[in-house]
Amino acid sequence: MFKVGENIHIISPRVKEALAGRDGAFFVELSRKQKEAGADALDLNIGPQKKAGPEVIDWLIDCVQEGVGNDMTLSFDTTNLAAIEVGLKKVSRNGKANAIINSTSAEEERLANVPPLAAQYGAKLIALCMEKSGIPVTADARVAIAMEKLIPRAQEVGLPMENLFIDPLILTVSGCQEYVPHAVEAVHMLKMVADPPPMTLVGLSNVSNAVPAPMRPLINRTYLVMLMAVGVDAAILDPLDRELMETIRIVGQRDASTPVGALVLKLFDAVAAGAELEPSDVDLSDPQQADIWKTVQVLLNKVIYTDSYLRL
């Protein structure tokens, strides 16, 4: 699975402070840590940056490349198209940019302007299953946006399908719990209804937004196993979360050498088969296994999420 490091994000107070103060050493080190932890690409989320965007992205690329070299894929995460184009030009080689544009939606203006930019520079493009009215709640509606608007537009501008990532959009379990299973179902449907199936990507940490910080990693890694089981190709995630990266390794290598690893694979196999994890699959006397079981029930919307669900 392709892993995009999420940690350079303007929503982080430390990142925002470092960006405002042009603290290059901070970004050099943060980039290096993410690469060493196993990130395949780095997302550079600078926010809208309406006026300073081009200058910010130009400076930030220099910092990041000092940390990780010139060969690592960079994802430009901003609504400022001028900044994105500066970034694409800066990382282009032989007419192709080693980059991802994050992102377009099905909104008319974005769909008109962003896919041609990706095609022009040979970049990959993240396309969100979202229209001007917002994120549809059902898997069917999200897949319809992908099939009727996002994929046709990519084809229209000559963007190769291997350069298009469809993002079904994850909603948070805290407040939107009933819709959490729909992102998993949308990935599954996208892999079934198109030939060849499109690439899919998710912003993993969205599922645990507004959840107490100590609980977020468990929710994130459990949900990722479910998404991997239906064929998700990539995720924007925290590569510095060692347990998350270990979970990805367990699935990739089919490592059932520990009780938790064996349970992770049982969850993966159940979801891949269109089934559910059974109580008989879990040793509930093991606190780690019990926590995974409880989290799966929450993510399937079978048990109501509360901040205390692990203690119930």
Explain the overall architecture:
The protein is of the alpha/beta class. The chain has a single domain (2-238), classed as TIM Barrel. Helix content is 47%, strand content 15%. It is built from eleven helices and ten strands. It has helices spanning 13-20, 24-37, 53-68, 81-90, 108-121, 139-156, 180-193, 216-229, 242-253, 259-272, 287-299; strands at residues 2-9, 41-45, 73-77, 92-93, 96-97, 99-104, 124-128, 164-167, 199-203, 234-237. The strands form two sheets. Strands 1-2-3-6-7-8-9-10 form an eight-stranded parallel barrel, surrounded by six helices. Strands 4-5 form a two-stranded antiparallel ribbon. Helix 3 (53-68) packs parallel to helix 4, helix 4 (81-90) packs parallel to helix 5 (108-121) and helix 8 runs parallel beside helix 9 (242-253). The radius of gyration is 19 Å and the shape is globular. The two termini are 34 Å apart. The mean pLDDT is 97.
